[in-house]
């Protein structure tokens, strides 16, 4: 997971800058959540979120800013991301992982024309999404008891 938190392109240009900095990350996040809202194939993962996706979008933007090599906004505001811990209240199975990745994959494909960068992002997000799986699916999509 530490490797996921320090991602810099081989020519020393951060992925954050390759995506267009703050504006590019906002565009990716906005499209990701638009897709989650409209794709029936993302129904279960959408139901895990609050009615308004604004707070989720803000958190994801801040996380991605630092994760992709830009300003560590999430860490400055909320500390270490601890992604699995923060997602522990939600049952995340392969189904939710796949639905989340469907939205992210499409958002990346729409925004990133560079094949090398696109493949790199697909791999990074896929590894992160795999890391979030915390159940076999028997209680998928349901908030876990505290």
Automatic annotation (TrEMBL):
Gene3D superfamilies in the cross-refs: Globins
Keywords for the protein's UniProt record, in alphabetical order: Heme, Iron, Metal-binding, Transport
CDD domains the UniProt entry points to: TrHb2_PhHbO-like_O
Entry keyword annotation includes Heme: yes
A family per Pfam: Bac_globin
Top-level taxon of the source organism: Bacteria
Xref: InterPro entries: GlbO/GLB3-like, Globin-like_sf, Globin/Proto, Hemoglobin_trunc
A Gene Ontology molecular function term of the record: oxygen binding
Family assignment from sequence similarity: Belongs to the truncated hemoglobin family. Group II subfamily.
Descriptive protein name: Globin
Taxonomic classification: Bacteria, Pseudomonadati, Pseudomonadota, Gammaproteobacteria, Pseudomonadales
């Amino acid at each position: 997971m530490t490797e996921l938190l320090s991602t810099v392109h081989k020519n020393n240009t951060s992925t954050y800058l390759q995506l267009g900095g703050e504006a590019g990350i906002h565009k990716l996040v906005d499209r990701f959540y638009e897709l989650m809202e409209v794709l029936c194939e993302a129904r279960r993962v959408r139901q895990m979120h609050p009615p308004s996706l604004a707070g989720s979008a803000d958190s994801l933007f801040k996380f991605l800013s630092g994760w992709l090599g830009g300003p560590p906004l999430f860490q400055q505001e909320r500390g270490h991301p601890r992604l699995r811990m923060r997602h522990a209240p939600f049952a995340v199975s392969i189904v939710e992982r796949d639905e989340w990745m469907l939205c992210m994959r499409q958002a990346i494909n729409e925004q990133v024309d560079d094949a090398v960068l696109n493949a790199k992002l697909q791999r990074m997000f896929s590894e992160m999404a795999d890391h979030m799986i915390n159940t076999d699916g028997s209680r998928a999509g349901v908030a876990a008891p505290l």
